[in-house]
Model the fold of this input.
Amino acid sequence: MKVFGGNGKRENGSDRGVSSGRAGDAGRNYINDYDRGYNNPEPQRRRAPQPKKKGGVGKTVLTVLAILAIIVAGVFIWWKMSTKPPEILSPEPDSTPSVATERYYTLLLVGIDQGKTSTDTIMVVRYDTQENKANIVSIPRDTILNTSAEYKKINSIYVGAENSGGDGVDALMDEVEGICGFRPNNYVFIDTQVFIDAINALGGVYFDVPIDMNYDDYSDWDLDGVAEYVFTIHVQKGYQLLSGENALGVFRFRHNNDGSGYPLQDLGRIETQHGLIKAVAGQALKLKNLTKLVDIAKLVLDSSETDLSMSNMQWYAQEFMKMSTDNINMSTMPATGAYINNFSYLTINADEWLAIVNEQLNPFEKVISPEDCNILCQKNQETGKYVITPGNYYTTNGGKVYTDFPKNPY
Done:
């Protein structure tokens, strides 16, 4: 199609506007010629480059920032909507929780050994949301209970109930309620592998190991020549970075292969546990990384027995970041050694214990009294002789005393 006499085709750039014959002037296009000449000494004028529009880079940056702001806002909104504190329950269904229950959250924290034969670490925790403080109180593994269960040591309650077809968690929660006067809001039962993985996720923990630790346990329970239970501890005394495996060994250590160890035996072990827990808390707080804590919380949730949800775990992680190691107070149930059927136990010093309960653990404004507890106590104690005999003990609530102590308490 011709437009204004053209041929409708774009010519080669070197002959723009010029007929290809060059025989005369006929048909020539002189629009771009100078004085109708072909050797134009002036360079062809070119269109001046257009200046770049100002603000292009700035707009890009603003757009990126806006997108990031939307993402951050979305994450924040999701976090706020998905993070929830655990539900607080009144100890009595028909009673109204006191104001204090909105301030305190209680938790039963339990460590199950590698062979899943006992709960050698039992701690009751109270977190204070007003002062951002945590009180952690250890209950020694050999603590004697006034219970109808076959085995009377507190570290045997969980496994004993499980082996008899019962619910180990409920059984242990019942017994803790009996000696504390209240039932903890929630529970977490952690096995050894979760402990190892959590410490490794933190990059290990620096700790001053108090003594040389050398212990080997190879147990062939079914006598088939193969050890079903293998646990070894080989950690030297001194300040060092502990891996998850070595931290577990330090946490569980009681004595060496030759019988040497802590002068106070299990109470010495609890003291080391408290120090290690504070060291782990300090290591976690140094990270200042809430995401890392949430990852560890998810690890615990996925591999432990607990009634906490992920929302609850996020809440605890968030609250933990508000603390310092100075806000963590640790203590141990006061107890006295006793022998029954030639096996060692620890009996609770009720008056001292209830003072700790009311000061450090009680989540309610009401004072917990001896009558609120089922604590087995000795009536009389001869100097140097810690032997419980029939008629020499009672319970703080005046209830039935269970005297059918087994020949072997384990």
